[in-house]
Amino acid sequence: MEELLETEAVLIANLDNYVQAQEEKLLQLRRKVQEYRREHAEAARDVSAYLSNPVNAFLLTKRLTTDWRYVENLMTYEVGKEFLENVTSFRSVLKFPSDEDLNGAAVALMRLQDTYNLDTASVARGMLDGVQYSTELAAGDCFELGRQSYLNGDYYHTVLWMREAMDRLTQEVNRTAMKEDVLEYLAFSTFKQGNIQTALSMTEELLELVPNHERAVSNKAYYVKELEKEAHHKVLRGDDGSAEVPVDVNTIYKGDSSPHVYDRTERKLYEQLCRGEQQLPIELRSKLVCRYATNRSAFLRIAPLKLEEAYLRPYIVIYHEVMSDWEIERIKQYARPRFRRATVQNYKTGELEFATYRISKSAWLKDSEDEMIRAISLRVEDMTGLTMETAEELQVVNYGIGGHYEPHFDFARREERNAFKSLGTGNRIATVLFYMSNVTQGGATVFPSLHMALWPRKGTAAFWFNLHASGYGDYSTRHAACPVLTGTKWVSNKWIHERGQEFLRPCELLPDHPADRVE
Fold this sequence. Notes:
By secondary structure, this protein is of the alpha+beta class. The chain contains 16 helices and 20 strands.
């Protein structure tokens, strides 16, 4: 987004130069008009006397030959050609967004609207979760958000934003043409939501504006026919007049097919936690403590870490002041040029792929690249008591506006047999998540089944075991990264694997995983 601002600055300068060139062209034409008008007015006062002067006769002839050809050339000269060529050349060196980027930005805004329960009118006024940030959206901006939702088949948000566009059109003048477009999108999206009568009313309003609108005429006939069918269907219902039991198409049943599918209850909890509406009961919070931790590390005996317990079973802790500002900036410098869109492992094939449930940029840093990165790995060893010999590289992640990672497991479940196969280091036994920035609004790490949220604080790190000591996955560690509402979120993480931890975290005499998780 910072690069796009640079692009916009260059385009503004180019456009300003174009406007100045156009104004210079018009200025020359105005001078010619004034010159011709002055000479013509003088001639009109006494035509015979004027034309009897041979100098005037010459000048009149010159004005209508050589001078007029100059005017014609000036009029036909394409001032914008050079500046359009500039834009074409800019595209090869500057960052320009694509239509896909526009759609992604719109989807991110819808995601924020849903997760943080934001009112459409408030967002249009530039107010996010009660904080006024920017200027208002115009009717055209709201229309574009609705159109992008329509292109995605998201008729719910199409209706929300087209209605907002319609409301704003009443405050703007001479926007009849846009009103036609808004009504067409609004009517069809309302129909797709099952409200045929309202869709018909909107279509009739559209036909009042444009009586010969081809699609509107066709749609009206279709809506009337559907309403007649609906009326007939009501007559044929049972003797008690009861309707069919409605099916909730929004319910997604969570099964063992995919670790990234989650049901409505989890979705609701996830969003409540993101909004800060849930917190641990006092009975649990009262048992949590803060302390200095040495973790049987010789180094930590003289430089203990500040540890804050966040949850007891599973044991989730936050280490404070474990990454300095200097380290954070250095890591960012390494990561920025390598950033690529973050991927996930396909749970069936083990292949990396893009997914809509994870939107962020990521980069990977090796210990061998810098002594500082190696020092962070050693610090993670002290924090966890585990070896880093089989840990993955340091992953650096940047979540922009709307960036998120929906509820997921860090570990591979038993049926995901291809996950981490190429590494040959076993499953992910533990996660260490460094927070490298504060986030203005949003961006929490939430654990829906635990009803618990961790809020980003620069320099801190969260740590938890993904697996029980028995090696079975701890399903209660399922977590998510909430969308960033305002600001930007930087994190880095170390995923630690099983291989090499056999004596550092041995199995217990009795299985410590729940009986219902035996597979």
